[in-house]
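Supplementary Note 3. Input sequence used for the single-chain structure prediction.
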Amino acid sequence: MNRLDHSRSPRRGTEDAPARIVVLASGSGTLFQALLDAAKDDYPARIAALVTDRECTAEQRAREHGVPVERIMPADHATREAWNSALAAAVHQHSPDLVVTAGFMRILGESFLRACNTRIVNSHPALLPSFPGAHAVRDALAHGVRITGTTVHLVDDGVDTGPILAQEAVPVMPGEAEPELHERIKEVERRLLIEVVADVVTRGVVIDGRKAMIP
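The predicted structure, written as discrete structure tokens, is reproduced below.
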């Protein structure tokens, strides 16, 4: 059951008054870099802050672009609930219109989702609902699929279970290994995430049961 209230849309961003985005990341930050690069041009959103759960390359990318960095490590908090509260506080202080999880390797708790009080968008390297979780590319290859891809979806309190905003297929080449396939998926993933974020902040999202539509 989806317990997250998706009724609130981000304010409408424009090139003259871009929406504020807080990005959550855990790794190399290539999706984060794609958003940074898009924001240099005529784009309806700007990166207000990066929030991480560990030391990672994404932090270096943020500092090189003058983006504030907040590191909220689970080990520094006594409970998962306390970490979720600290994470929500770190995000809230940057007043985001939209939160984007871009390679963030943690499940966001229901308390964080309630406290965040804005839409959260995630990018996943598979065609959901197939192959959720941290090893989507590996799992797709192990299953022997001929087509995989990427999904951009809203975040709820499940594992990659939120309403889908957009998907794009990527064919699996014969004999292809996980690193090569993952890199080809990432190329599509970066472009699709940029497009969907722009659509969400300019046009909003309408929820109808399991369906998420950008009008």
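The mean pLDDT is 92. The first strand starts at residue 19 and ends at 25.
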